[in-house]
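Quick illustration, no need to memorize.
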Amino acid sequence: MASCTLLFYQRRRDWSTVRLAQASIDRRLLCDAYPSGTRLGEVTALAAAATGLPAGTPVVLGGHDYLCGALPVGAFEPGVVLDVTGTWEIVLTAIPEPVLTPEVQKLGVTVEAHVARDRYAVWGRAVAADMLEWYRTEFGLPALLRAEKEGGADWDYLMAEASAAPAGARGVMFPPHMSAAGCPVVDARALAAFVGLSNLAHRGDLLRAIIEGLDYQVLDIVTALRTGLAIAPDRLVAVGGATRNAFWMQNKADVTGLPIEVPDLEEATPLGAAMLAGIGAGLYRDEREAFERVCRPGKTYWPNPENAARYRECYRIYQQLYPTLAPISHQLFNQLSA
């Protein structure tokens, strides 16, 4: 995690004396940086009394949550592209050496040390399911009342409305920038919008437009990795809470044109942290052995050819929305911030 501080020399994987001097930070204030999976010591008697953990239990260095989540699905090997999908959407892959160019910086991607040894991760991110939660809070009362009356969860009824709408949401589109734009355009003043509303649109079309917009956003990030780093995935491996939403996963496959693999994992991040602990404790030789022990294939969502063709056309329109709306969004943002 030290490599995310802007005080780290990425290639040497150590603190930068130049950056520390520029920031007037005393090196003695910073702990030493070690690779994830390093055994740091043992639980002391004092810590055992405070936590209930047995004294002598190995203490092993963990890592960033989404990078820990990459281990159980093999996203430490080049070519495997992980989609961490939930409140945030993070699309990441492993690379052997850091790519630190102005072109990559302009794409809004992050390059940092991976929790896998001698690897780096490059990823783009954006807010995702938070917008669905907003819709649920503001417009989900009918679904909630129906769930209370007929049983089931309100999400089930909401997704049924979205899936009943046609691909393309009857012309409604949603650039998903309710919390700014992050990748491949970095714009803190970007705002979301429903575009293409007509008297033909239904409530389900609006929800479907949000989901489609979030998936266009994923395609944006995948496209940025392809154009900026020549990373061309043949599939995405998805983890996170949103993988339980079958409609969303299928729509993501249709929009991106890529198969979406959802491994049979309950929680990838704590499992990845446990894998690091196993490496540090000597249970596993390395990430590859740990992965082979815990890997559990699950379900794959394949793109629907008809929908995928439709979305290729829609994506060309979607790509025009941000540059067209940005000047208006900036004016409105300035009013909100005044």
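The first helix runs from residue 17 to 22.
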